[in-house]
Amino acid sequence: MLQLSIVIPVFNEEESLPELTAWIQKEMAIHQYTYEIIFVNDGSTDSSWSVITDLAEQDQRIKGIEFIRNYGKSAALDVGFSKAQGDVVVTMDADLQDSPEEIHPLYQMITLEGFHLVSGWKKKRHDPITKTIPSRFFNAVTRLLSGIKLHDFNCGLKAYQNKVVKNIHIYGEMHRYIPLIAKWQGFAKIGEREVVHRARKYGVTKFGIERFVNGFLDLISVSFVNRYKKKPMHFFGALGTISFLSGFIITVKLTIEKLNALNKGTSVREITDQPLFFLALVALIVGVQLFLTGFLAEMMTSNNSRQSDYTISNEINLLG
Q1: Taking a C-beta distance cutoff of 8 angstroms, is the pair 81, 7 a contact?
Q2: Crossing angle, helix 210-228 and helix 129-146, to 10 degrees?
């Protein structure tokens, strides 16, 4: 098995690929690693694929995967992870803003210190303030909600044990939350290393301000899916209980008030004439619907549950 797999998503980076490849090859030779470089061409419209093809012809350790269109960074990483054969898998961007010189210390943190995942931290960034300020806010919120003490969740430079990338699935824009997904899969030893962030040499950034809006929506999505995927009734049942009890309590209150008024001979509005009655009715109906949704979700989860949904750390052959 190889020591290193270096997975690099590519989208219109024809100018930087030869320089990046030569730099990686130089670093690998210095440390005498056995390795592979996996370029995943994410629907580039320039000549990136031709450059990757030429590089692969010159070095058999270079592999290429091409998408027919642009699916996004998460899809590129997911496919790259599925093909990676190295004991340690390193991801980095193709724009030369990540330095291949960081690969060796990241590899050592995984192999010598036993981290499941190590994320880079671009403490000093060469980006405009319109990108750095939203990024800091985004990282602060993610850190608060996830409980993972990382400064830079979205840093493309990361290192993983091979078993980590084989047991996580990312899609959409979930690459921002790989540490969170890994943690929920049981890979909780997550480290961080300050890395050099270099100024962009070629091309322009591929991400706009909309990524931060999408990022928070994805955080809500990944939190919900990973927390309640195996126990949907815990979510829908809790909401249904709150809603149903609220409606029931309001109904009982209105009924008691009506009975007390009748006993005292005082006039009181009909229950059906009071706005609270309709609020209680809606709460009761919503509560029942949420319960039914929870039951249906539990049935679907039970029918679709597979052993492959669970992360297995080790196996021992038992005889007898």
Answers
A1: yes
A2: 10
